[in-house]
Design goal:
The complex is a heterodimer of chains A (about 350) and B (about 350). By secondary structure, chain A is of the alpha/beta class. Chain A contains eleven helices and 15 strands. In chain A, β12 (about 250-255) and β13 (about 260-265) form a beta hairpin. The chains are: A alpha/beta (about 350), B alpha/beta (about 350). The interface between A and B is large, with 42 and 46 residues. The structure holds adenosine-5'-triphosphate (ATP), adenosine-5'-diphosphate, iron/sulfur cluster (2 copies) and magnesium ion (2 copies).
Chain lengths: ~350, ~350
């Protein structure tokens, strides 16, 4: 893993307007800021509907952001304008004031053409079969990705590439002539991964890539994703339901609640010392595959369900379910602050 | 629970179920046996297609064509369930056993209120009950599964409930006739861990209060550790290992169980360790191999495994493993040493 930041997201917001309803509509992602380093895996967890998929897709601009700023590898691919950014001269050097302090300026509204970035930023979907065109053979599916980005110079090279991608993901070369439905779920997911890898991406959003797979197949795919990352220096945003899997594969983990990032930290540290009450609840809910530990353990059971993102609670969005909520929590949105080394959280309790 | 010792709540012997499809016979359940005592919770684990649901549907008499029970027996409190006529079956399903399904939405009727559906479920089996009593009982059940605001909730429709609440309604519906046996087919698989935790707490609580027996079908070893007394591990339509929950976790004796337990990342792990997957893919049930069905994926497999189906090696206290390794160990009296 590098120290270089590959992706920087600032105050990203995505609202989905609802027909016939006044107001902002579904507030699916609300003010998320995060950075992902090159070669890193950032995990994303949270209850169904909390905005994980929407965040992933908005970063790729498969959804158009409502506002915020996305910088990928030094290029501003989206900016709704007005953010404080470093002031640079025409050689790209930071401009300082008289006292040697770096100056800032307000960012301009930007919306880059995504085509050059589409190849570099890929996504792997939860439902492998639904994401593959049933009328195309596996070879054609991978070939199409190669063609769109004009990555092969001849027919021979193209066919060699298809074969090598199939073997990279543990499939046979003769599988190229088969259709997606002729494969098992695990194999279909391998095809989905081969298609994503075929365009030589740098950054992949993995949206629940193993949820639809059998237990005995999940670990095969997890290991493969790890190997690909090591070989190709890939960077992942890894979304999954299974919190044990997320911790296993991620360097850092972000916890989302009702559209907002409420905690972010190094994976093992976050699981050992969660700061936010919601994170604590979430972790205590994971069943432990050990009967004795399971019997000995006390868990915090949350009352009620996640609120509607159409009408999120004011103040801390978690206050309707939080056992520690005070009056302040109902009125003031807690700030996202750093409490330990690289360990961030948003909760009034933490001061 | 006075008659726990001699009379079992449920006894299944060598149950065989096949689907007769145009492509041939699919042996979905290939001869499984187990028993469940009063107040016991049995977990059935296995990957998708291993026959967990088919087995449950067979007990409920809900198997649909082209599925057919082709052998074995199912006995409930000593009665032969497979020989029940239509009326006996309806009585059995309503008053003695209930089932909770994986997807609650497919089982709730979108055009009737929750209250209406609960009351109907009750009246279908208890014709004498008055409207007032039925409604009272329905509300008690909703309260039992942790739903508040009862008056209002009774009048709402399924789409006004969240996924977790619908699953709780399903549990309420299953329990409204006080069954002695509850079959829960992946009741929490589609839910978030927080909601799963709620449901598990509710089920444990109700189980303690009512003393009913539960068959809990899942593929999540964490959930099994939490709620089950006994476990049956299924692979390709057979139970490959069976035993008390502690034996299965601390002394797994079948290469498939050992592989499964080893392959998943654990929330109680102290640090990163690379996963050790089970190679290969699950059996294609249209053309299963001969001998041990796990042989093509088993790292311990021997010559005999490809030829003959392994019998159970009895390891004591109801712990058994269908594996030639264990059978041979017993024959040579050797201590087992290669767990995990
Ligand atoms: N295209 C859309 N139009 C309107 N609302 C949407 C759209 N996509 C998502 N939403 C809403 O935005 C919120 C966040 O959804 P999202 O799919 O990001 O959740 P998620 O965290 O990925 O959940 P899951 O774990 O179930 O996949 C939800 O309330 C969802 O209903
Ligand atoms: N209606 C059906 N027609 C043909 N085969 C079926 C049918 N239902 C189930 N099967 C087969 O029976 C086997 C066991 O299925 P099931 O009990 O649903 O698995 P599980 O619940 O363990 O995931 C599978 O091989 C499946 O394909
Ligand atoms: S800010 Fe208040 S309501 Fe929100 S998590 Fe912290 S204590 Fe709970
Ligand atoms: S019988 Fe043979 S193939 Fe089957 S699990 Fe045992 S060792 Fe493996
Ligand atoms: Mg999602
Ligand atoms: Mg099933």
């Amino acid at each position: 893993m590098d120290d270089k930041v590959l992706l920087q997201v600032t105050n990203l917001q995505k609202y989905f307007p609802v027909k016939g309803v006044k107001g902002p509509g579904v507030q699916a992602v609300e003010g998320v800021s995060l950075e992902i380093k090159k070669g890193e895996t950032l995990g994303l967890v949270g209850e169904s509907g909390c905005g994980k998929t929407t965040l992933g897709r908005t970063i790729l601009r498969l959804h158009e952001p409502t506002c915020g700023r996305i910088v990928y590898d030094g290029n501003t691919i989206y900016d709704s304008g007005g953010f404080d950014i470093p002031l640079k001269d025409k050689d790209g050097k930071q401009v300082l004031d008289k006292n040697g302090k770096p100056l800032t300026t307000k960012s301009k509204k930007t919306s880059q053409d995504m085509l050059p970035f589409r190849r570099k930023m890929q996504i792997i979907f939860q439902d492998p079969l639904a994401s593959l065109d049933p009328r195309m053979t596996v070879g054609e599916i991978i070939g199409e990705a190669i063609d769109i980005h004009k990555l092969a110079s001849s027919k021979e090279e193209r066919s060699e590439m298809i074969k090598s991608f199939l073997s990279d993901v543990g499939l046979n070369t003769e599988h190229a002539n088969r259709f997606p439905h002729e494969f098992s779920g695990g194999q279909q997911q391998r095809v989905g991964i081969a298609r994503a890898l075929a365009v030589k991406p740098e950054f992949i959003v993995c949206d629940e890539p193993i949820s639809a797979l059998d237990v005995s197949i999940q670990s095969q795919i997890v290991n493969m994703l790890e190997d690909m990352q090591n070989e190709l220096g890939l960077t992942y945003l890894f979304i999954a339901h299974d919190l044990s899997v997320v911790r296993h594969i991620s360097n850092r983990i972000g916890v989302m609640y009702l559209g907002s990032l409420i905690e972010l930290g190094e994976s093992y540290e976050l699981y050992k010392h969660p700061l936010h009450p919601y994170t604590k609840t979430l972790l205590s809910a994971i069943p432990v595959p050990d009967p004795e530990k399971s019997r000995a353990r006390k868990r915090i059971v949350l009352e009620g369900d996640i609120s509607s993102p159409m009408n999120p609670p004011k103040g801390c969005r978690f206050h309707t379910r939080c056992p520690y909520a005070t009056q302040k929590c109902k009125e003031e949105i807690p700030q996202f602050k750093e409490y330990g080394k690289d360990h961030w959280a948003a909760c009034h309790l933490l001061g | 629970m006075s008659n726990t010792e001699d009379k079992k709540l449920l006894e299944i012997k060598d149950l065989k179920v096949s689907f007769f499809t145009p492509a041939g016979e699919v042996k979905a359940v290939g001869g499984i046996s187990y028993d469940l005592g009063y107040g016991e919770v049995m977990g059935i684990v296995g990957e998708s297609g291993s026959g967990k649901s088919v087995e449950a549907y067979s007990i409920m008499g809900l198997l649909q064509s082209p599925g057919k029970v082709i052998g074995g027996s199912i006995s409930f409190e000593g009665e032969d369930v497979l020989s029940y006529d239509k009326n006996q079956m309806i009585d059995f399903r309503g008053n003695k056993v209930a089932m909770i399904f994986q997807n609650p939405m497919t089982c709730l009727n979108p055009v009737y209120t929750i209250g209406n559906q609960l009351i109907e479920a009750l009246r279908a089996h208890n014709k004498e009950i008055s409207a007032h009593d039925a409604s009272k009982r329905a509300m008690e059940m909703l309260e039992l599964v942790g739903i508040n605001n009862l008056e209002k909730r009774m009048k709402q429709y399924p789409h006004e409930f969240s996924g977790g609440m619908r699953q709780r309604v399903m549990i309420a519906m299953g329990l409204i006739c006080s069954p002695k046996l509850l079959i829960a087919d992946e009741p929490t698989t589609a839910l978030d861990v927080t909601i799963q935790a709620q449901i598990l707490e509710i089920m444990k609580d109700i189980q303690k209060k009512t003393g009913m027996g539960i068959i809990f079908i899942t593929h999540n070893f964490g959930v099994v550790a939490e709620i089950c007394d006994k476990v049956s591990v299924m692979y390709a339509g057979r139970i490959v290992e069976q035993g008390k929950v502690d034996d299965i976790y601390y002394k797994p004796a079948h290469p498939y169980t050992i592989g499964l337990l080893r392959s998943m990342p654990r929330v109680d792990a102290e640090e990163y360790e690379r996963l050790i997957p089970i190679d290969g893919t699950p059996v294609d049930m249209c053309c299963p191999p001969e001998g041990c069905l796990f042989a093509p994926r088993c790292e311990k497999c021997m010559q005999i495994c490809f030829k003959k189906v392994p019998p159970y090696a009895e390891l004591g206290d109801g712990h058994r493993s269908a594996c030639w390794l264990r059978v041979q160990e017993q024959m040579s009296g050797k201590e087992e040493q290669d767990n995990g």
